Recover the amino acids of this structure.
C-alpha cells in the first residue's frame, strides 16, 4: 500500500513525512519524526499518556489518524520549554514531586496545559476533571493536582 | 493491509461503504483505531469523511439535527444543547471527548455508548444513507436492534424533537471511578409533565442489555401518573423488564440487577446519587 504524505506544524516547526494509510499520530511523532514526548501506553484511549494538543485541544495521539492532522498545529511536551527555561507547569511538577516513574507526566502536562490555556484560574474540581483522562499509578494524583493549581498561580503560566 | 479513502462528500462515503463489505467508516477514531492498534483490524478500507455537513449542528429549531461527526466536545460547547451536556460529559475524559463522535457512540459496545442512551430517551431517529441516494430516517431503537447485522449504510446524522422543557430530561451514569469511569449502568429519562402528571415518559438504560434499550415497563408504570412515591415504587418494580445485563470486568449481572431499581428510584425522586 502506498504511503501518504502528511504535513503539519509540530511545536512551531513545519514538518512533513510519509505515513502508512492507517498510521496513528503517535507512531508518526515517535518513529517518523523523533518526538518522544508523548508515550505509548494502552493504545486504547484509556491511559492518556499519549495526549497531545491538536489545534489547542487535547487529543489522544494513539487514536488519531495521522493523515487527519494535515495542516494542523500539533503541540507536545517536547515544545513546552523555552530553551533552557522550563514551562511553569514543568517547574511546578518538579517543585511538587508530581512525577515519580514519569511515564504519565507528558500526558498530564499536556492535559494541564490545555486546561490553563482556557481557564487560567481553575478550581480543584476543574483540575481533577481536566486530568480525568490520564492515569497515574505512582503519585496518587494529589501532587499532580497541587502542581497544576500552583502553576495556575505562577507568573507566565497563562502562556499556552 | 489497510487502505484509506478520504471522501469530501457524504454520498461518496456512502457509495464506498455500500459497495465494499470490507470498508469501515472512521470518525473520531476512538473505536476503529483501538482495533487497528491491537491488530484486530488489518485488512480493508478505512473511509474518512471531510464533508462539513458531517459535523453540522442544527439545534435552534423544534427539530434538532446533529451530524454524526459532531464530537462530544462540540456538544459541550453548544449552549442550545445544554440538556445533553450531562451525557456528553459522561464520555471518557477531555481528550476522548475531543474525538468521540455521536455517530461512533451508536456503535459502541456495552458497557460503552452512554450518549446513545440519552438519544433513546429523546426518541431520536438515525439518518442512514445507502449508496448515492438520499438519506432515510429510522428509529434509533430499530437501528440498535439491527446494529450487529451491519450493512445499514452510512449514519449521517441523528434527529429528535427538541424537548419542550429541557429540565425534564434526566441522565445518570453510574460508575465506580470518579470522575471518569466505565459505566456499571446508565439511565436516561424524559419525563414531560402535564397537569402534574407524566405524559409519554421515555426511559432508557445503558449496560443493561447488549445494546442500549428502552425501559417499556417503567414507561407504562409512569404514564399518566403524578411522579409520587406510588408511581416511583411501581416504576422500580418494573425496572428490570427486558433487561439482559452482562457480567464483565466492571460489574456482575447480579450487581447490575440489584442496583438498577435503586438508582432509577433516586433519579425519579430527584435524589442525589
Amino acid at each position: 500500500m502506498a504511503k501518504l504524505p502528511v504535513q503539519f506544524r509540530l511545536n512551531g516547526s513545519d514538518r512533513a513525512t510519509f505515513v502508512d494509510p492507517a498510521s496513528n499520530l503517535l507512531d508518526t511523532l515517535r518513529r517518523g519524526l523523533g518526538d518522544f514526548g508523548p508515550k505509548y501506553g494502552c493504545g486504547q484511549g484509556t491511559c492518556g499518556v499519549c495526549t497531545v494538543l491538536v489545534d489547542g485541544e487535547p487529543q489522544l495521539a494513539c487514536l488519531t489518524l495521522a493523515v487527519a492532522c494535515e495542516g494542523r498545529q500539533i503541540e507536545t511536551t517536547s515544545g513546552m520549554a523555552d530553551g533552557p527555561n522550563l514551562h511553569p507547569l514543568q517547574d511546578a511538577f518538579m517543585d511538587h514531586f508530581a512525577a515519580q516513574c514519569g511515564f504519565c507526566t507528558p500526558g498530564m502536562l499536556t492535559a494541564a496545559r490545555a486546561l490553563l490555556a482556557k481557564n487560567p484560574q481553575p478550581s480543584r474540581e476543574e483540575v481533577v476533571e481536566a486530568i480525568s483522562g490520564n492515569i497515574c499509578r505512582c503519585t496518587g494524583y494529589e501532587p499532580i493536582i497541587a502542581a497544576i493549581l500552583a502553576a495556575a498561580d505562577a507568573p507566565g503560566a497563562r502562556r499556552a | 493491509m489497510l487502505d484509506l479513502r478520504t471522501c469530501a462528500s457524504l454520498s461518496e462515503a456512502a457509495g464506498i461503504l455500500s459497495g465494499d463489505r470490507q470498508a469501515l467508516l472512521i470518525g473520531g477514531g476512538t473505536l476503529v483505531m483501538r482495533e487497528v492498534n491491537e491488530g484486530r483490524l488489518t485488512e480493508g478500507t478505512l473511509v474518512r469523511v471531510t464533508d462539513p455537513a458531517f459535523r453540522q449542528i442544527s439545534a435552534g429549531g423544534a427539530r434538532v439535527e446533529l451530524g454524526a461527526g459532531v464530537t462530544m466536545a462540540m456538544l459541550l460547547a453548544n449552549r442550545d444543547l445544554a440538556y445533553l451536556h450531562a451525557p456528553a460529559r459522561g464520555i471518557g475524559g477531555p481528550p476522548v471527548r475531543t474525538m468521540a463522535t455521536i455517530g461512533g457512540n451508536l456503535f459502541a459496545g456495552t458497557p460503552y455508548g452512554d450518549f446513545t442512551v440519552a438519544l433513546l430517551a429523546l426518541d431520536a431517529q438515525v439518518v442512514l444513507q445507502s449508496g448515492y441516494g438520499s438519506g432515510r430516517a429510522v428509529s434509533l431503537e430499530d437501528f440498535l436492534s439491527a446494529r450487529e447485522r451491519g450493512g445499514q449504510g452510512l449514519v449521517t446524522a441523528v434527529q429528535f424533537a427538541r424537548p419542550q422543557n429541557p429540565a425534564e430530561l434526566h441522565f445518570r451514569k453510574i460508575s465506580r471511578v470518579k470522575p471518569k469511569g466505565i459505566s456499571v449502568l446508565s439511565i436516561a429519562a424524559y419525563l414531560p409533565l402535564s397537569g402534574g402528571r407524566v405524559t409519554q415518559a421515555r426511559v432508557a438504560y445503558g449496560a443493561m442489555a447488549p445494546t442500549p434499550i428502552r425501559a417499556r415497563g417503567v414507561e407504562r408504570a409512569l404514564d399518566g401518573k403524578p411522579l409520587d412515591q406510588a408511581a416511583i415504587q411501581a416504576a422500580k418494580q418494573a425496572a428490570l423488564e427486558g433487561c439482559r445485563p452482562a457480567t464483565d470486568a466492571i460489574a456482575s449481572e447480579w450487581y447490575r440487577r440489584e442496583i438498577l431499581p435503586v438508582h432509577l428510584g433516586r433519579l425519579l425522586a430527584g435524589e442525589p446519587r
